[in-house]
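Example with several molecule types.
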Amino acid sequence: MDFSDTPEEAEFRASVRKWLEANAQRARGTSGRFTGTGTDDIGAAKAWQASKYEAGYAAITVPEVYGGRGGTPIQALIYRQEESAFAVPTGVYEIGLGMCVPTVMMQGSDAHRDRFLVPAYRGDEIWCQLFSEPAGGSDIAALRTRAVRDGDDWVINGQKVWTSGAHFADFGILLARTDPTVAKHKGLTMFIVDMKAPGVDVRPIEQMSGGAEFNEVFFADVRIPDSDRLGAEGDGWNVALGTLMMERMSAGQGFGFFGATEVLELARKTEIGGRPASSDARVRERVADWWINEQGLKLLSYRAQTALSKGELPGPEQSVNKAIEAPQAQEIAYFARQLRGQAGSMDGEEIDEDWVHVDRSWLWAPGMRLGGGTDEVLRNIIAERVLGLPGDVRVDKGVPFNQLTS
Amino acid sequence: MDFSDTPEEAEFRASVRKWLEANAQRARGTSGRFTGTGTDDIGAAKAWQASKYEAGYAAITVPEVYGGRGGTPIQALIYRQEESAFAVPTGVYEIGLGMCVPTVMMQGSDAHRDRFLVPAYRGDEIWCQLFSEPAGGSDIAALRTRAVRDGDDWVINGQKVWTSGAHFADFGILLARTDPTVAKHKGLTMFIVDMKAPGVDVRPIEQMSGGAEFNEVFFADVRIPDSDRLGAEGDGWNVALGTLMMERMSAGQGFGFFGATEVLELARKTEIGGRPASSDARVRERVADWWINEQGLKLLSYRAQTALSKGELPGPEQSVNKAIEAPQAQEIAYFARQLRGQAGSMDGEEIDEDWVHVDRSWLWAPGMRLGGGTDEVLRNIIAERVLGLPGDVRVDKGVPFNQLTS
Amino acid sequence: MNFDFSDEQKMLREQVSRALTEAAPLTEARTALTGGFEYSERAWNAIAEAGILGAGIPEEYGGLGLGRLEWCVTSEEIGRTLAPVPYLSTIVLAEALLAFGSAAQKNMWLPRIAGGQIIGTWADAEGPRELRADNLQVEFKSGRLTGKKLPVLDGNIAGLAVVLARTDDGPALVLVDLEKGVSRRALKTLDKSRPQAELHFDGAPAELLGKAGEGWTAYTQLMNRASVLLAFEQVGAADRALEMARDYALERHAFGRPIGSYQGIKHKLANIYMANEIARVHALWGAWATSTDASDLPLAAASARVSANRAFTLAAQENIQTHGGIGFTWESDCQLFYRRARLYAGLLGPELDWKERIVTSIELSNAA
Amino acid sequence: MNFDFSDEQKMLREQVSRALTEAAPLTEARTALTGGFEYSERAWNAIAEAGILGAGIPEEYGGLGLGRLEWCVTSEEIGRTLAPVPYLSTIVLAEALLAFGSAAQKNMWLPRIAGGQIIGTWADAEGPRELRADNLQVEFKSGRLTGKKLPVLDGNIAGLAVVLARTDDGPALVLVDLEKGVSRRALKTLDKSRPQAELHFDGAPAELLGKAGEGWTAYTQLMNRASVLLAFEQVGAADRALEMARDYALERHAFGRPIGSYQGIKHKLANIYMANEIARVHALWGAWATSTDASDLPLAAASARVSANRAFTLAAQENIQTHGGIGFTWESDCQLFYRRARLYAGLLGPELDWKERIVTSIELSNAA
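Resulting C-alpha cells for the full complex:
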C-alpha cells in the first residue's frame, strides 16, 4: 500500500503542475466552486480551454486520432487533481466534455467526429445535455418531447428543463420520443441539436440561491437532419445510459462546501460561554463526526484512483460521495450559523468571507441533494446495483407510453 | 388550559389511590416493566386481578350488565396512571383484557358474554391473541392457518407465532382462513379457541434477551364449534381490525426504558476527563435532545387524555409514541454503555441495578422496534392514515389467496 | 386535564386564519422578500382590527384583558401564512412593558400597542459576538444610550424598542423612542421577507425599564416568553411546509405513480409529522406556562424553542427535497419556508444555549 | 497511488477466509456464547497453522517478517465469521513486545506467540471507573504487581499479559506471566462468545516492558494499533451483517413481494453499505499508517475506531430490524452480531475520547 505516485505518474504530475504554475493562478481562500456556469466569463473560459488544448490537457484520454492525447484515465485524474488547486474557469465545459462529447465520439458517425470533436476540445464550441423534462423528474424515460419524422428530417416539439449552460451552448445532445406506441424506454432516440437553430428558445431558471445556471429549453418545430441521429432509432435509452455512466469516471471531486475543518477554524474566532467555541466539546464532537465522513470520501476517491490506475472501473464511489456530502453540507451550514448567534440570520456579506461561504453552502446544499440524482435515487442505485435488491415496483412496466395515465 | 383533574376526576383519582395504597406496594427504583409475561408468578397475578375485580377496577369502562363498572375512558386512564406507580403484576392480562375480551364482548353472542366476560375480568381465565404467523410478518392477512367446516364444527390446522402468554392462556381469539379461493383479506374468519383443547400445542420461543414470553402455537385437527365463531364467516379481517384498534385506546404508556433523566443521574456517578460526566457538554446536549422527545410523548398523552375526557377518539399518539421511544431507547442504551468505559461490555449484574436497567433496555429495544408494528410499518400508518398518502403498491391486490406465488 | 386551547380560543384561531388567508397569502411574504415593502400593512391591519394586539393587555391599558393564549394562537396562524408582519417584535415589547414597566410607561405605550398605532421591537444582539451579561457594549448612562445593536428584527420600522444595555450597576433593560437620536441601517439578510436593521444609538434619550442591575434576569424572562410565541409561529410554518410537501407528493408522479406512494417519501413525511407534533405539544405547554406564570416556564420555553427549531428546519428543508428540482427555483414557495426557518432558528440566540437551559432546569427541579 | 491490499495480501485473505469458513462457521460463536467452550481451538489452530500469528513478527523471533497488513486482513476475516478466538488480544500483546520489549523479552515470548504456543492479552481497565494516567490503582513495585484489572479480554485463557500499572515513576507497562500469582474470575458479560475476566494480582512477579514513567504514552500507541486491528474485525462483521440482511430481504416476502423491494428496507441497507465503506477505507488508512509507522497513525487509528463502531453498530441493529420478529429470537444469528458489536464498541474505551483525539490531531497537523 502506497499513497504516492508511480514514477511515471509522478513525472506526469510534475509536468502538469509546472505547466499550471506557468499559466494560471493558485486558488485562495475557502470558497468553493458553487458559481456554476451562470455568471462565468465565457471569454475567459474559452481562452483557458484553448490553452489546455494547445498543451495537450484538454482531452487526455481521447485517442490522438480524434485530437486527444491518447493518455490514461489516471493521467486525466492527476490533471484534475492538480488543476483543482488553481483558479481557472472550467465550469462551462464540465458537462459537455464530460458527458456529451464522449457520447458523440462513441455513437456518432465519422463525419460527426471530424466535425465536432476538435472544436469541442479546443473550447470553441460548448455542449449541453437535454434529457430532463418538467413532468419527468427522476423518471427521465417518461419524457414527452416528440421527434416526428418528416422526409430526411426529424421535427422536434417539446420542452426540456434543468439544462445547465443552455444559454451559451452551441450544440446539445437531445433525447426525444420517436415512438409513443411502445413502452416508455423503448420509443426514445438520441440526436445532436444545433442550439442556434430556429425554434430553439432558451429561458434561464432563477434558482432560490439567486443565480440562474440552469434553463428551460423549448423546441417549436425544430428540424434535425436524420444524419444527426446518435445511435439507432428507438435505442435512445441505451445511448443515454452510456452518457450517464460517464459520470462514474470522474470520481472523487469535492463540491467545495464549507467543511469540518473550516467549522473548527471558524469556531476559533467565536465564543461560547466566553471561551473560544473551538474548545467547546459539542463543537468538537461534531467536527470529528463530519471530518470522518469527509476524510472517508477522500479515501474512497483514492481507492477509485487505485482502481483506475489498474485499468479497472471504479465502484459506486460517486453515488456514495454525493449521498453523504450534500446532506452533511446542509447540516454543517445549519450548525455553523449558530456560531454567530443572532447574527446567523444576517447575510455573510455583512460579516466576512467565511460567512459568505457558509451562506453559499446553506443555499446550495438543497440543490446538491437533488441534482444528479436525489438523496433517494442514489440510495436506490446503491441498493439495486451494489446490493442486488429489486427495483421499485413499476406499475408502468411494459405499458405503451401513450396509454400511461399520467 | 389546565393540567389538573376536574373535581369528579380528582375524586375518582383519590379513591383509586387510597385503595391502591391500602392494597399494594409502591414501585421502587428505575427498572421498567420489561419482565413481560414469561417469568411472572401467575398466582400473584390472578390474586391481584381478583382484588381489582372486587373493588370495581377490573373493567372500568364495561357496562355493569356485563360485570363492569360502567365508567368512562378517562376513569380507566386515571386508574392506569395511578396503578403504574405500584409494583403489581398486570402483564399477563394486558393483551387479553385490552384486546381479546373486548372483541368477544362486541362480536360474541349473549351466550359468549355470559360465559366468558366475568371470569376474564375476575382473572380466573386468561386470554391470548392468535393472529401472527411465521410467513406473514407485517402482512397479517397473508396467514395460512386453515379452518375447514365439518358438520357443526370447524377443523383447525396451522401455526401461529409470537403469541404472548399462550403458555398459560385458557382461551384465545384465533384468526384463520376459511376460504382460500378469494382475495387474502376476504377469506378470513375469527374464532374463540379453547387453548386446552386436544391438538393445541404451545412451544415457547426463546428471545435474544434470554426470556421466553412469546410462543409458537401449533394446531393439529383442533375442533371448534361453529357457535364459537366471532362475527360472520369471511368477515374475520374486519373483526381483527376492530381488535387492533383497541390499542389506540390505551394511549401514553411508557415502556420503562432507561431514559434521559436516568442518563443524567448515572452520569453524576461516572467521570469524563476526571470530572463528573454529568458536567460534560456532550452528555448534557444528548440528555436535552432525548428529554424533549420523552416529555413530548408525555405531553401527547395528555392531549390524548384531553380528547378522551371530551369523549373524542385519541389521535395516532400510540404510533408516534413507539416510533420515537423504541429507537431512542436503543440509542440511549448504546450511549450509556460508554459512560462505564470498557466495563460497558460487562453484564450489569457485575456492577449495579442501574446498569442492569441499561442492559435490559439495550436487549429489549430491538424487540420493541418490531413488536406491535415495526418502525417502518408505524411510519406507513402515519403517512397513510394521518397524511393521506397512498398505500404501498400492492402486487397481491385482489389475487385469490391460493394463486399468490409466495 | 384539559391540555388544549379552549373552544373560544379555537374560534379566534379560525377567525385569524380566515383573515390572514385573505390578507396574507404567500405572495405577501414574496413581495417582502423581493423588496416590495418592509411589512404587509394589509395583514398587519387585519391583525390589529381583530383586536389581537391588545388580547394580552389588561383593559385598564386599552387591551382586551383576555390572556396570552390568544397571542399564541395568532402566532401559529402567522407562521402558517408566513405573514410578513412585526407581530413577534411588537408583542415582545408589550411583554416587556407588562412585566417591567412603571405605571407611567404602561399608560404611555400599552394603549398605543393595543390599538395598533405603534410597532415595537427588542434589541439585544451586538453583531456576531457572543451575547453575555459581562460583555455588553451598548451603554446606558445618565439617561442616554450609546452604541450599536444588530441585527434588530423590524428595527427599521419600529417606533419603540426595549434595549439590553450595560449600566454602572450591571445590565439593564431600557426603553427607547426610536424616532429620537437613533440612526438605522437596513441589513442584508438571508430572509428579506422579515426586515432586520442595525440601530446606532448616539446618545439617544432613553429610560430604565425595571431596575438597573436586574436587566439580565429580566431579559432572560422576556426571552422565555418570546420563545413560546416564536415556537407557535414555527409550528404553524412547519405544518404548512408539511402540507405543501404532502400535496405535491400526491400530485407529482414518477414511474407511473405518485411520489407519495414511495416509502422514501412516506417515511420522510411521517418523520416531519412526528417532529411537528412533538413541537406542537411543547409550544402548548409553553403557552400554559407563560399564561399561568408557572415555575416550569424556563423549562417549557427551552424545550419549545429547541423542538420548534428542529421541526421547522426539518420541514422546510425536506419540503424542498420532496419537491425536487422545482423546489429549488426562485419561483417556488419552498424557499420562503427555508429562509424563514433559518431566520427563526437564529432569532433568540444559539440553540446550544437553550439545550443547556433544559438540562439546568431538570437538575434544579430534581434538586428541589 | 496504491490504496489497496496487494495481490499477495488478497490471496492470503482468501486463504484465511476459506480456512475460517470451514473452521469457524457461526455455530462456533454460538457454542462459545452458550458456554460450550471459551474459544474455538479449531479456528485458533487454523489461524496458527496458516502462520498468521507470526506474520508481523521478524524472522529472527520466529515470525514470517511480512508486516502488519497480513494481520489486518486476517482480522477482517475473523470479523466476518465472528470466530471466537483470542486473536486481537494475542496480537496486541505481540505489538507491545515488538514496540517496547527488550531483546530478552522478545526472544523469550515472540517465538511462542508466532508458533501459537501461548495466548496473550492486555489488561488496562479497572472496572467502571474512568481510566486515566492519574488514577491507576494497580501498582507495580519491586518486581511485584498488586491490584485488580477488569474486564480483561481472554483474561481467563491467556498465559501472558501486558498490564498498565502505576509505579513510583508514573504509569508503566509491565509484563506478567499469568500462570504465577494471579487469580482469575470469569465475568458475566453481554457477549459471552468472547470471554472476559477479572485478574487479581496479589504480588504477582512482573517485569517492566519499556520504561517506567513512559507507560501512558506507550499504552496510547499500543491502543492505536489495537484500534486498527479491531476496526478490521468490525468492518468484516458489519459486512457479514449487511449480507445477512440483504439475503433475508430478498427471501422474505410481505404483501406479495420481497421486503427488499420496499424503499424503507432498500434505503436502510444502502445507509449501512455507505457506513461500511467509510469504515473500510479508514481501516485501510489505519493499516497503512500502522505498517509504515506514519505520523498520521493517531488520527487514522481514531477515525478507524469511530467509523468502525458506527458501521458495525448500525449494521448489527438494523440486521435485526430487517429480519423482523425472527431476528429477535435466541436461535437467530442476528443476536451474535448485536452482542459482538457492543463488546467491540466498548473494548478500547469511550468513543467520545476517540472523537476528541481526532480533533486534537487535526489541530496539531494544522498547527504544524
